[in-house]
Amino acid sequence: MERMILEARSESDEPVSEIKDQLGDEFLLIASSVHGVNPPASLSFSQVVSNEIHTMIMEGSFSELGYPEVLLAIRLNGRNDIKFPAGLDLEKIKFFGSFVSVDFISQILMNYMTVRNLIDRKIQNHIDGY
Questions:
Q1: Closest CA relative to residue 9, chosen from 54, 67, 51
Q2: Which secondary structure element, helix H or strand E, spans residue 109, and what is its range?
Q3: CA 1 to chain centre
Q4: Radius of gyration over every alpha carbon of the chain, rounded to an integer in angstroms
Q5: 10 Å Cβ neighbour count for 116?
Q6: How far is residue 115's CA from residue 85's CA, in Å, rounded to a whole number?
Q7: C-alpha of 85 from chain center
Q8: Residue 79: count of CB within 10 angstroms of its CB
Q9: Strand-pair partners of 66
Q10: What angle do CA 22, 40, 47 make, to 5 degrees?
Q11: CB–CB of 31/73 below 8 Å?
Q12: Is the Cβ–Cβ distance between 92 and 79 less than 8 Å?
């Protein structure tokens, strides 16, 4: 998992806050298909959800994430075999509600950021000689 996160970070040319278009219908369909849930029911509602996800990312602690990392977070949450860098199982966020929502995506990204920050600390400790 560490390698996947580092690769996604290296592929992230622009933070998500700069690429709002990528958080549209295709993103919602990917998130829906990975988790086996319904996307928002209408195009107009889908646009509102996409805009709110973008706003949540920009105003939250996720603005440094690139689109590849956001997709990786969604995909990792759909797996059952993911572990923290220390070897502990990463508890995935269980779907709630009736469609992909801002809150669901936010919780997935918070989970991802926990692992990402642990990897950052591990790398920094290695650099510092610990």
A1: 67
A2: helix 102-127
A3: 14
A4: 15
A5: 21
A6: 7
A7: 17
A8: 11
A9: 15
A10: 45
A11: no
A12: yes
d(CA 72, CA 76): 6
Enumerate helices (H) and strands (E) in the chain, giving the number of each: 5, 0
Residues 47-65: what's their mean pLDDT? 88
Say which residue the tokens 């510092």 belong to: 128
The model's pTM is: 0.85
What is the average per-residue pLDDT within 50-71?
88
**Can you name the residues that pair with 61 across neighbouring β-strands?**
none
Q: How far apart are CA 38 and CA 28, in angstroms?
A: 9
Confidence class of residue 15 from pLDDT cuts 50, 70 and 90? low
The region, left, alpha or beta by phi > 0 then psi within -120 to 50, assigned to residue 65 is beta
Distance from the Cα of residue 15 to its chain's centroid: 12
For the chain, the maximum distance between any two Cα atoms, rounded to a whole number of angstroms, is 54
Residues linked to residue 15 through DSSP beta bridges, in sequence order? 66
